[in-house]
Amino acid sequence: MDLSFIVTIEASKIMIDIIEKAEEAHIVSTSTFNKISEIITSAWIFALGRFPLKKLEDLNPESHEVIIVLDGLEIPGNIGTIIRS
């Protein structure tokens, strides 16, 4: 698999680790990447993941823990804003 478009050693290691663990991995063209990604990163890595479904009763937070549920965020930066809040 050609990873020559990855420019840093760290990004290459991350990409190889992701590919080894993923059920599927696809290398796409720069124009396709730009269409599916809202944020252009220097690492040029875009990942989709499937999280296990949990029921509310499955969550048992300790008294000092907080659970935040995020759904349908349109701007990825909002996640960081919510966490900092």
Short description:
This protein is mainly alpha-helical. The protein has helices at residues 9-21, 30-36, 77-84.
Describe this structure as you would to a colleague.
This protein is 33% helix and 0% strand. The protein has 85 residues and is mostly helical. The model has no long low-confidence stretch (mean pLDDT 79).
Write the layout of secondary structure elements.
Layout: H1 9-21, H2 30-36, H3 77-84
What is the average per-residue confidence, as pLDDT, rounded to a whole number?
79
The biggest sheet, with number of strands, parallel, antiparallel or mixed sense and barrel status, is:
none
Quaternary form: single chain
Rg over C-alpha atoms, rounded to the nearest angstrom: 17 Å
> Order of SSEs, N→C?
HHH
DSSP strand tally: 0
Supply the number of helical segments.
3
The coarse overall form would be elongated
Helix content: 25-40%
| Poorly predicted ranges | none
Which structural class best describes the helix and strand composition?
mainly alpha
Sheet-strand content, in percent, reads under 5%
Span of the ends, CA to CA: 41 Å
Core attributes:
85 residues; mainly alpha; 3 helices; 33% helix; elongated
